[in-house]
Amino acid sequence: MGAIDDSESYIQTVNLGSALYYSVTALCCYDYCLTLGDEIQYIWASKRTLSVLLFCGFRYPAVFNTIFVVLGANAFPSWQSEYRSDHEGSEDFVLI
């Protein structure tokens, strides 16, 4: 029964980690949506200064990274994963 308890504990840990990740991602997206009006008014309409370039240089890569990570999180199996059966009667999903 120790293996079953370990598996359940692992699954709970993974689920908690996923829930926390998606919660933080949702909070960041919510913050972006809340501040978009001010950003349009104060950043997009202003002259291109060093502070505007720094703002855009830090803000947009983070936004795009969040979008790409969320869209690709569970969409497709990884090219690094392999489904194989090493032992008779047992099949494992192995990450290489």
TrEMBL record:
<protein>
    <recommendedName>
        <fullName>DUF6533 domain-containing protein</fullName>
    </recommendedName>
</protein>
<feature type="domain" description="DUF6533">
    <location>
        <begin position="23"/>
        <end position="63"/>
    </location>
</feature>
<dbReference type="InterPro" id="IPR045340">
    <property type="entry name" value="DUF6533"/>
</dbReference>
<dbReference type="Pfam" id="PF20151">
    <property type="entry name" value="DUF6533"/>
</dbReference>
